[in-house]
Amino acid sequence: MVMNYICVECKSTFPLESHKWKCDCGGLLNLEYEKKLIDFNITSSSRNHSLWKYIDALPFNEEDVWQDVTMGEGDTPLIKLAENLYAKAEYYMPTLSFKDRGVAVLIAMAKKLGIDRVVADSSGNAGSSIAAFGARAGIQCDIFVADSTSDKKIKQIEAHGAVIHKIPGTREDVANAAIAMVEETNLFYASHIYNPLFWEGTKTYVYEIYEQMDGQLPEAFIIPVGNGTLLMGAYIALQELLENGQIDKMPKILAVQATACAPIQKAFVDGSTVVDSVENKGTLAEGIAIAAPARGAEILKAVRATDGDIITITDEETSEARKELARKGVYVEITAAVNYAAYSRYIEKYPDLKNQKVVLPLCGAGIKSN
Length: 370
Ligand SMILES: [Zn+2]
Prior knowledge:
The chain has helices at 40-43, 66-69, 99-112, 125-137, 151-159, 171-185, 197-202, 204-212, 229-243, 263-270, 296-305, 315-327, 334-349; strands spanning 3-7, 13-15, 29-33, 78-82, 85-89, 117-121, 140-146, 163-167, 188-189, 220-224, 252-258, 309-313, 358-362. The protein is built from 13 helices and 13 strands. Helix 4 (125-137) runs parallel beside helix 5. The strands form 3 sheets. Strands 4-5-13-10-11-12 form a 6-stranded mixed β-sheet. A 4-stranded parallel β-sheet has the order 8-7-6-9, sandwiched between helices. Zinc ion binds next to loops.
């Protein structure tokens, strides 16, 4: 499979070997390659119980290096939470969060390209996932984190042998420090925000649901949005399934942000096509508190293309939703509870939704947060 980076602005293309993370014109990069149809009759009876059963839709061959990198990520259970409401239990992952989908693909590609050292920045789940898969793949990782990052997360990253760079300031300052190192060294930037290979992994979230619902999709997906890494991958898969005639109608993407940091929701309500940065006023849902999302314009476009919506959820609603889920036997990290809170709000806003199938992700395990 020939695969290149393509600039979303000027359409210049670059080979994956170029280590590009941005175009010379400043534009963000997406991927360009020939897509292959997945035969879900074959994948549904596959003995490979991981996202790698969709190898036909991934930039690898059956015999490729991914076999030395995978830790069985993907193929997570779909749990019925209430009538018509299903939850995809993404905490069934090697590092207990959905980030393993994108990281497994990104790190496997780094290994395939012969890369032995990568740089990444993260406030949490992506950092521990990259450190773990980097260790597995024999790739040295330099992980940039905020100096306020919890000891628990730093210990995990260090345990995998990654080098930690603690940066004072905001999430944006942390990203800028990582980018400075990438620019200086020309190392591979294993960014879950800039590198579109990440979405090649997160798109399997939708493939799995399609298979688990016997060749159908729910009417709506509730998806939490900070940098939009799950949303962008999901949207790629939805487009593919529609183009291939495997579904006949685009489900809605019902996105959710935290009230204290909701730049994309603000742009959506304002009818804007670009996202202006906001001040992060501080929220329990730290996993989605991104004040200046690099992919904001693309996220807005995706939500609008599905006739979707974006709402915000307060910390009080999130805490209450987390308790309610725990009382149902499901213990998730705080950020993941936002999705359950959003379901209640969305069925108030759209009463018909109660009669339609909805899927939300349980993005990370409860022990990841306090
Ligand atoms: Zn360009």
